[in-house]
Design a protein that fits this description.
It is built from 13 helices and eleven strands. It is an alpha/beta fold. It has two domains: 230 residues, Rossmann fold (3-Layer(aba) Sandwich); 104 residues, 3-Layer(aba) Sandwich (Rossmann fold), CATH 3.40.50.
């Protein structure tokens, strides 16, 4: 009789369990991000049956995460998902096709649990971006053509016996949309004692699509009467795909608003949970980021400008119809990352941007509540 073969991997569990503990402990040490009530002018309030009511606007400040952006939540979920699936084990090299905030946050978690991290990116990536990743212990691997980053990430995965963590595919499935301290659960918990605790609208952008998928699913799971609006920057295909129901659409031009918008419909973009999409011109995104930065007394990034352009439009509609309620959107990352771009007048001029028209729309909104931007 042949001897019974036994292959025992129980020893592998101890490292993975400790890695999960380290990530969970990091999450517990990090307080939840702030939810700011944005001060709106007097036109946002009115009286009904002797009681004052109106429209309130909130900013969920995701820039206060340890790595400074909304992507910190995604990176934590991606690492926990990969660890619990057994895809990351002791010594596994983690690989991502990104030069943005997700790669910064993933480098942070890789360093936390003691595994190597490689971000595959175009050789044209600015030194300031690579420095953020390297500061968290990651290594940057360059390709000449931006479209080659995915194939190169897969090649490195095979060559190094590593794990391509693939945010664009895994984002919508790595986050537990039913709860477990996701961003939706956090928003509703923080809104509980507000005048309008159940928001009329949640407004977010889409990069991977993971945040909008999480929010949309959570709203349906909890049966909240809240609408989900997704704002989409210029040159992104998410809005055209949503409008035409054609998930095969692609574009040769990438988004100039970092963190959101894609030239293809990513696997994590779940259009069926979105109630409305709003296209936002790049000039409007940047003008709003600069305008709101002045009002808040701190700089915010371009994607926050995109979010707010959509949110302010919805606030205006609710106020004009005397429909009281609340609107919640996200402050995605700090504006100091964009000193040389969105907040640089020379860069603005070099792009051919004229911010005067969207700035006039914002002036009119804050003065009167009216939204005068033409519909696209």
């Amino acid at each position: 009789m042949q001897p019974t073969r036994i292959v025992d991997h129980r020893a592998d569990r101890s490292w993975s369990e400790n890695a999960v503990r380290l990530i969970e402990a990091d999450g517990r040490r990090s307080a939840d991000t702030h939810l700011h009530l944005v001060t709106l002018p007097a036109w946002s309030r009115w009286t009904v049956d002797g009681r004052e009511t109106g429209v309130d606007l909130y900013l969920k400040d995701e820039s206060t995460h340890p790595t400074g952006s909304l992507k910190h939540r995604l990176a934590r979920s991606l690492f926990l998902y990969a660890l619990c699936n057994g895809w990351i084990t002791e010594g596994t090299t983690v690989i991502e096709a990104s030069s943005g905030s997700t790669a910064v946050s993933e480098a942070y978690f890789a360093q936390l649990i003691g595994v190597p991290f490689i971000a595959v990116m175009a050789s044209s990536t600015s030194p300031s971006k690579t420095a953020l990743i390297e500061r968290q212990g990651g290594r940057c691997h360059f390709v000449d053509r931006p479209g080659d980053v995915y194939a190169e990430a897969l090649r490195l995965e095979a060559e190094l016996d590593g794990h391509f963590i693939d945010q664009f595919t895994m984002a919508e499935r790595a986050t537990d949309w039913r709860g477990n301290n996701n961003i939706a659960e956090s928003i509703f918990a923080q809104m509980a004692e507000e005048e309008h605790p159940i928001p009329t609208w949640l407004v977010v952008g889409a990069g991977t699509g993971g945040t909008s998928a999480t929010l949309g699913r959570y709203l349906r799971y909890r049966r909240h009467p809240t609408w989900l609006a997704v704002v989409d920057p210029q040159n992104s295909v998410f809005l055209p795909a949503y409008e035409s129901a054609d998930g095969t659409l692609t574009s040769e031009i990438g988004s100039r608003i970092e963190g959101i918008g894609r030239p293809r419909v990513e696997p994590s973009f779940v259009s069926q949970v979105i109630d409305k999409m709003i296209g936002v011109p790049d000039e409007a995104s940047i003008a709003t980021a600069r305008y709101i930065s002045e009002r808040l007394g701190r700089r915010v990034g371009g994607s926050t400008g995109t979010n707010l352009w959509g949110a302010l439009q919805l606030v205006s509609g609710m106020a004009s119809e005397r429909n009281p309620g609340s609107v919640v959107t996200l402050l995605c990352d700090p504006g100091d990352r964009y000193t040389g771009t969105y907040f640089d007048d020379d860069w603005i001029a070099a792009q051919g941007f004229d911010l005067s028209e969207p700035t006039a729309v914002l002036d009119e909104f804050f003065a009167t509540g009216r939204w005068t931007a033409p519909a696209g």
